[in-house]
Amino acid sequence: MFGVATVDCIVRNLSETGASLEIANPVGVPDEFILLIKPESLKRKCRVAWRSANRIGVQFLFGEG
Asked: How many structural domains compose the chain?
């Protein structure tokens, strides 16, 4: 069974196809994960497209796995 980890982030840019997330330390964030935006309860499967010192860009995955 897989464990679940959470990481707080700030959504800096959001579109229908992806988002830019500000995060204290992107090291350890997996290449694919589920992004949950509260209080809207928006839930999207994501793949990391790029990483920088305190941000990651993600592409939303639709119809995959």
From this structure: 1
Dihedral (Cα; 44, 29, 24, 18), 10-degree rounding: -30
Beta bridge partners of 11: 21
46 within domain boundaries: yes
Q: How far apart are CA 20 and CA 23, in angstroms?
A: 10
Is 48 within the bounds of a domain? yes
Q: Within a domain: residue 5? A: no
What CA–CA distance (Å, rounded) separates 43 from 64? 14
The pLDDT of 57-62, averaged and rounded, is: 95
CB 19 within 8 A of CB 56: no
pLDDT of residue 65: 53
pTM: 0.83
